[in-house]
Fold these 2 entries.
Entry 1:
Amino acid sequence: MDINEDDEQLGETSEEDDSELSDGELQDAFAKGLLKPGLNFTTQEPKKSVNNVEGLKQCLADFRKNTLPWVERLDMVNLPADDIVAKSEGRLDNKASGDINPDDDFQREMFFYRQAQAAVLEAMPRLLKLKIATKRPEDYFAEMAKSDQQMQKIRKKLIMKQTMMEKSEKAKKLREQRKYGKKVQVEVIQKRQKDKKAMMSAVKKYQKGMTDKLDFLEGDQKTAKGGAPAKGGAGKTAGGQTPDKKAMNKKGPNAKRKYKDQRFGFGGKKSGSKWNTKDSHNDVSGFRAKVAHGKGGKGGKGGKAGPGGKGGRGPAKGGAKRPGKNARKKMKGRS
Amino acid sequence: MSALKRKRGGKGPGGKAKKVKLVENGNEPQTTEMEQNKEISVPAPVSMGKWKNKERVLVFSSRGINFRTRHLMQDLRTMMPHTKADTKMDRKDKLFVINEVCEIKNCNKCIFFEAKKKQDLYMWVANVPHGPSAKFLVQNVHTLAELKMTGNCLKGSRPLLSFDPQFDKEPHYALLKELFIQTFSTPQYHPRSQPFVDHVFTFTITDNRIWFRNYQIIEEDASMVEIGPRFVLNLIKIFQGSFGGPTLFENPHFESPNTRRRVIRMATASKMREKQMVKELQKLKRTENKEVVTRDVTDDVFATPAEERPVHIELEAPAAKVVKKNKHKAFKRQRMQKR
């Protein structure tokens, strides 16, 4: 939809009879190009705004307090400071506030900032002359405009922003690295395939009796040692070396595995391996009549009395005999 | 602290003797007083000079302001130590009542926030007994509480006021400049002020509005950080009196928020209406029964200049064809294979 401002001519006609414009008039207007398609509004004549210049000047003269020195007022009128960034880029820096685009946030705020900068630069010498400090001494403590809590919050936010930036940067780097890594991986795989192919073809050749050299089998070792033969290459050395190395490095299973193997066995039939066999049944070498059938003394049974296992393998300890019930009662009473 | 103590440099009953004492031996009388009363009180900031410029600004608002305006008002009070506060004005009260309030509060400048419709904020800046006064529409308010404003300054330190050169070009801006200087500049040696200048208020005219910013001076080489608050003042009118009187200036570029909203509403409404009309027209078109086209104009294309033949109609069925083909004959492919 367009809001077209009608021309003055039309405006006048509409004033006379607002909605009752005759069709003929409208058609004429359209033919002349005054009317455009779309919805048309009748525009009001711009209001005459008051601007009493004399009054303003008079008022200002009455109102001004010329008696006050500059120290009391601290006012400055100044253009913005030089725009260093614009200068370095060879642009013209806008000196008047009319030049800036109010919708361009950054430009606008920069302009304000520069104006404040210029004010500070200009005011500094004057303040120095008047001996007014712009910085409080280190040991001067006073209430600030913003509370410590608020400043803490601000600091936290700034730090968070920074960490976020760092994180995103890191992620970006990682992504790039990953991309590169993938490329390398693909290359390696291709090389391996190529090598394999070469090897297979060599084997085939040997099978068909075209050659009776078995160089290709040791080819990798050769390449590893010295100058690369025709089809060798860096890839082969890398591929061929690893298994050898592994074999070299391997010294059997680790200690834990060894122990477990020894304890539980490995491989072979497991169930029933602990059952008695005929031989084990007949083997009575471990039997000792002294200890058998609980003859090992009571100490064997008592948990505290001695370390002897079941069957009282340890020597019977006469001294550790439990006193009788009465004796025990007496003991209890004594202590 | 009592009002008596606060007015160290000022008048008051028996103020003369006290004043002389103060000037002579600095802070000593206060400490002795403290010892006598045996109460702990924080001494006011020490200022060596005399407080001459007795400018006081009343900062308050009407009822019905939102939280942002309240914060802005609070921020102005913290930034300007020479302000006073008052309770909110009733909306029914006439504006010239403010003059009396200011008189009671002993203020000669006034910043009055007027909220309307719970969304529009107007600000009056007035020189109280005699005028002039200006009315602004306040837009784009950001307060001190925002985390983007990272600066900080002493509470009660004095600001530098920086003005755009455009303020000197036009008479109404010149008047506003004077008004701003007198309201926003903190008097030297004000008892509640600090003897430092560590922030800058900037007033810039762009887009026919006055933009207010507040920066902290970090280093002497003019590196700064914004403290806040920030707001934009859109001038509406300048009056000769305070809160009334003949109009001296009226901003021709000002568009009231009401009309602005109205235009937007009307635009959307007319858009809708147009859409509806188009829809209806289409509907009407669809319901109109179409004319049956009897003759196709393009038929002429097919008219060929050949002579007409009599229409031949077969009345008998055509004779059956004799099939000669050997049915059991193999395909060519099979024959080829056999060979």
Entry 2:
Amino acid sequence: MLEISNLGFGYSAKAPLIDVRKLRLNNSQHLLVQGPSGSGKSSLLFLLAGLLQPQKGRIYLGETEMTALPAAARDAYRGRNIGFVFQQPHLMAPLTVLQNVLVAPFMAGLAVEQAHALALLEKLGLGKLAQRRPHELSLGQQQRVGVARALVHKPQLVLADEPTSALDDEAAEAVIGLLLETAESVGAQVVAASHDARIKKHFSQTLSLKGE
Amino acid sequence: MSTFGLMMAYLKHNALRTGYNVVLFALGTALMAGVLAVGSQFEHNLTRNLQGIDMVVGAKGSPLQLVLSAVLHADVPTGNIPLKEAEALKDNPLIKATVPLALGDNLAGYRIVGTTPDYADWYGARLQPGGRMFAHTMEAVAGHDVAQALGLKLGGKFAGSHGLAPGGELHSFAPYTLVGILKPSGTILDRLVLTPVDSVWYVHENDDDTPVEERPKPENREVTAVLVKYRTPLAVASLPRLINKQTDMQAASPAWEAARLRKLVGVGSDTLKLIGGVFIGIAALGLLVAMAEAMRQRLYDLALMRCFGAGPFKVMRLVLLEGVTISALGAALGLALSYGFARFAAAQVFGGQLAEGTVADPQAYACLFAAVVGLGLVGAFVPALRIYRLSLPRLLASR
């Protein structure tokens, strides 16, 4: 469960960029954050990830108040409980597909079975590509690897920043469908920031940001 | 997955950059190790050859030349001294023992030294089985390297050539008989042929090719130098001064001249060390620049790692480990190169046997290795610091 109360954040103290009074996302619900460029969509994701600290307000993930954690604890908490999907998949070029999936839990200090990662890749239709390098994959395939990387350690929350903007209709539909389906299978909630209207139908809640 | 495996994946991915940095570190290390080895060899030779010789007496001239020619056999003698004066030294109460040296001929470039068996004893030299020390005129004992290089056998005969360099007139009328071969001692004896002083006199007093009036007369016999051991340390203060003032001979202290030599050689050695240091410094700087560039290229990868929950120190460790690995590989390769070169040189000069002191002591190599790795660490530290200061939201939002 994700809960936000009285959240305020801005790069300039006089003009707050984000002002969310109350938001509650129950388990199995997913949130789409909408808004024009510069409206603070990505900043909200960074706040939820603990990469930015708000000027006011609180963010709860489950029973934990993220905003009250010191920096090192936030890093550790993020690693264990949050997954990321970015607009560009940005896989690590020297690593294989499988290694790219396993690097996220490794960085968080989590032990994830290789077999589990392989099963996840299989589920995402990438089973045969596990030993390939990122440059050998299409953009859609790379984005699916990004989905696997975000979900391999069974996080509570997946933050997706413009996950489909770079994809065509078919690939966008496939990726968002797989992301939500796989997230539900591991019990994760998804918060996606996007101005891509094609994916709105997949989300049970939306939040519109207007910016400064 | 492990930190080391991850780091190796990045090193392999940038094989050219990695190889370039490793080679730079290797060249610097090899040069430094080479200088250390040469210094060690020089010091070892000096120490072993000067051991137990308190004073050298010879003809007037440069004291360093006298020591070099009479102790290290690395220079031409300053001249000869009358036998009578040389023998008179024995009677001095401050002197415990003397050894005469008579030079003048060589065998294929190896000096033939007229002396007494005490000369070999002073260095603790031992004979190979089957041989014995010379006892009569025209008997000779060859040093280990001479016998090995020239294939000399016990009982064999050979003639010396006039002068101290090869190519002189052959004294074929007076062949030497080899009665002994010395075991390797790591001293100058390995590269000398020893014979009684009488042999040297005999060869030159009976040379048919020299007109009779020009041949040395027995009553005017000379030696080249005398090596002296003091009876008491007090001798050092008065004896050399006395000889230098009151006789036509020159007394030189090997220890004193060795110190001068160290100073002279030290300048060259320090220059080489400086060049080696500059190489390593350039390597460290190159690593810093290369790693800064590599970090810039994969800043997003490192930001992702932080995003995935790695603390700043964990990511910094990865970068520092990369610097340490590159410099350690370079240092190891450099030491291997230096050792390989020493072996190659030994194969050329000593027939494959690494001479004692050819390789500097392991502690010096360990210090060099640690210093190079330390520099690698410093070279990687600046880019690593950038990771520590990274603003993740700004970087992630930029793509």
